[in-house]
Design goal:
Blueprint: H1 8-29, E1 34-38, E2 48-52, E3 57-61, E4 69-71, H2 81-113, H3 129-164, E5 169-171, H4 173-197, H5 216-219, H6 225-229
Antiparallel strand pairs: 1-2, 1-5, 2-3, 3-4
Helix pairs in contact: 1-2, 1-4, 2-3, 3-4
């Protein structure tokens, strides 16, 4: 595996990162972070389930899909600490992951479309695809940490609410989507790190292009004096004399 070609590892990492960002977006928008189930002992009434999201809250009767109570201003009055933290953590994680995707795409485009022998005058301004993928892997890992920590905290905070009030709280599908998306971000970063480990033995610096100078500049370099000194005196500047018959 080399750095000068677009490999399946980088393409798979880009697709995995895109799917993870899509999962984060779904987790952010779905109103299914926590359920609060309210029971009634009146036979003429139905139980109510309150679905709590990061931005909206919806209350439904059992067997109904319509919201009896719909609160689109819930995001301004969130009274649960874990959901308030997620309101800031998940968009930040998405922004970090999107930046990593953009950087990964720059690295792949640089590998696919840039000439292997760049202009000497522009060599110091070019971007090394290996460096792009390494920084993208670090950003994916950071996005994973930002997303995973508060998502797991929801589970423990849900148990805290059940102990403090009544056992009517349960975490919903958005928690699993966010954790799975964090796992996808971690898998993406591992793929990029593995790809970079196959390229780090190259002599180019961290952020410089793979060819910092054109190969023609090195083709005619003279041998060092120590190498020439090992030649015998007979082999140095001995003219060849031919005699005509």
């Amino acid at each position: 595996m080399g750095c000068r070609d677009v490999h399946a590892a980088t393409v798979l990492a880009f697709l995995s990162g895109t799917a993870s960002v899509a999962g984060l977006l779904a987790a952010v928008l779905l109103p299914n972070w926590r359920q609060m189930r309210l029971y009634t002992f009146n036979k003429n009434e139905r139980n109510v389930t309150v679905y709590t999201g990061l931005w909206i809250k919806c209350a439904r009767f059992d067997g109904s899909r319509d919201c009896v109570i719909y609160d689109p201003q819930w995001y301004t009055a969130v009274d649960q600490l874990d959901l308030r933290v997620l309101q800031f953590a998940l968009p930040l994680s998405m922004l970090t992951a999107v930046s990593a995707l953009f950087l990964c795409l720059i690295g792949m485009c640089n590998t696919a479309f840039v000439s292997t022998v760049p202009n000497v005058k522009l060599a110091k301004c070019l971007v090394n695809s290996a460096g792009c993928h390494l920084v993208a892997g670090l950003l994916f890992l950071l996005a994973c940490a930002i997303c995973l920590t508060p998502s797991i905290w929801v589970i423990f905070y849900n148990n805290y609410l059940n102990r403090k009030y009544e056992p009517v709280f349960s975490f919903d599908i958005s928690v699993f989507i966010a954790i799975a998306s964090a796992g996808g971000l971690f898998f993406t970063s591992v793929l990029l790190f593995l790809w970079y480990c196959a390229c780090k033995s190259l002599p180019s610096p961290f952020w410089q292009p793979l060819y910092s100078h054109a190969p023609s500049m090195h083709s005619y370099a003279s041998q060092p004096y120590s190498a020439r000194s090992r030649l015998s005196a007979i082999e140095i500047d001995i003219p060849v004399v031919t005699h005509a018959s």
